[in-house]
């Protein structure tokens, strides 16, 4: 599991870094204004459906069923099931895409309550360009699920890097050649869907498990898939739905607020995507096998170790982003049309998002335990409850707190969601925190707090007013503070005997020696 976790995490990290570069270029050319707001609404629509119908609900229902058939019945029955699933998914999404293209003004009105005039018209035009991406990337997510079920995590994780590579090229071409950044970038989104689907299908073909399109039929397998998928639509995608609610409320705030929220969320998504997605992706097939073999001890151990691995990196990321929020946003985005004032406001949003980072990540770690058991009803009930809570908190907070209200509402909802998932899994005997996890979690938290104190003191003494520094000096000082914080954290972990540096060095040297002898 750890090897698969690191494989997916490494490729996801590369994708997120390239995504950060893409967002930096986007911020420089569009800033935080009406065109950026409209473009982000157009991007949110297909991404929301992708999370729900692709990476969320469909994978949560499809991967356990595919893995179970592959393990118990063999490759051919599993491949037939995958072909039926792909055919049904693509037909449904094609119909949805056609309807959305026709009624796009109504769709945009729902997602962007506060949009009007040119902002609304631009959002409708861009959304019609980007919406087909949803169908393509959902098909890619299913093929990715096949590869993950086979234990082939590298190809599936690597394919998503192309979204940001094509996105960067499209923004640059749009700004420097065609002088229409938003429209060309929107076309780049859809083109990236074509490339991702093609790359993943080719990888499945090479593995001998490429699904074939057939006329969809309501077989017993498909009916079982639909029963599982329906509840999982909210259960696995509740985080994305909450973020969409944040975007809806943000359109009621001053122009530029959706952009400010978006860039803060993108920084928060860097550790969330790397850690949460990697842990959830690697954990789901593993838990499915353990539950199929009725090995409860292995289930407990896998969940505990996954939480351990994620907390080791999530807690310092959370505290680090809270301490350095404004310098991070200024150093990364305060160029071109994105001002320092925009960066400071976005940094305040980042602090509110970062506070909930452990909860956001643990939701992705705990949810697979339900999905592996075939239970998609319980997460959806919790999802509905926390969706309602998030909407209520948004409505209560957005007027008194302004731009900080939506991210803080999402953080509160995430902690409630995570707590309910953990309590129910504990009652079912699927998650029991072992003494090793409890002791290490406390020491990890202590090391993260120690790191934060040293970094905060260093910034105050060595870099007062850091967000307003000149670009190169600002970025250099930020990197110095981050590296210093990492060193303090690692040294403290070693002192608290959480991670012994000597043992890590020995294990690394042993791995190098094994590779040399092959």
Major sheet summary line:
none
Q: Are there runs of 5+ residues with pLDDT below 50, and where?
A: none
Number of spatially distinct domains:
2
Q: How much beta, percentage-wise?
A: under 5%
Q: What would you call the structural class?
A: mainly alpha
- What is the H/E order? HHHHHHHHHHHHHHHHHHHHH
Please tell me the overall pLDDT. Answer: 84
Strand runs, count: 0
Report how far apart the termini are: 23 Å
* Annotation field: number of helices: 21
The rough form would be described as globular
Q: Please give the radius of gyration in angstroms.
A: 23 Å
- Helical content stands at over 70%
Subcellular location: Cell inner membrane; Cell membrane
Protein name: Probable lipid II flippase MurJ
GO biological process, one term: cell wall organization
Transmembrane segments: 89-111, 131-150, 157-178, 184-204, 232-250, 270-288, 309-333, 353-372, 379-398, 404-425, 437-457, 472-492
Structural summary, described in words:
This protein has 518 residues and is mainly α. The two termini are 23 Å apart. It is 85% helix and 0% strand. The chain folds into two domains: 11-232, no CATH class; 253-444, no CATH class. α2 (34-72) runs parallel beside α5 (117-130), α10 (220-235) runs parallel beside α17 and α13 packs antiparallel against α15 (340-355).
Highlighted features:
85% helix, membrane, peptidoglycan synthesis, globular, mainly alpha, 21 helices, cell inner membrane, cell membrane, 518 residues, 2 domains, transmembrane helix, single chain
SSE inventory with pairings:
Elements: H1 2-30, H2 34-72, H3 75-102, H4 104-111, H5 117-130, H6 132-149, H7 153-159, H8 161-176, H9 181-206, H10 220-235, H11 238-250, H12 257-292, H13 296-323, H14 325-333, H15 340-355, H16 357-372, H17 377-401, H18 405-428, H19 435-462, H20 471-495, H21 501-517
Helix pairs in contact: 1-7, 1-8, 1-12, 2-3, 2-5, 2-6, 2-9, 2-10, 2-11, 2-12, 3-6, 4-5, 5-9, 6-7, 6-9, 8-9, 10-17, 11-12, 11-17, 11-18, 12-13, 12-15, 12-16, 13-15, 13-16, 13-19, 14-15, 14-20, 15-18, 16-18, 17-18, 19-20
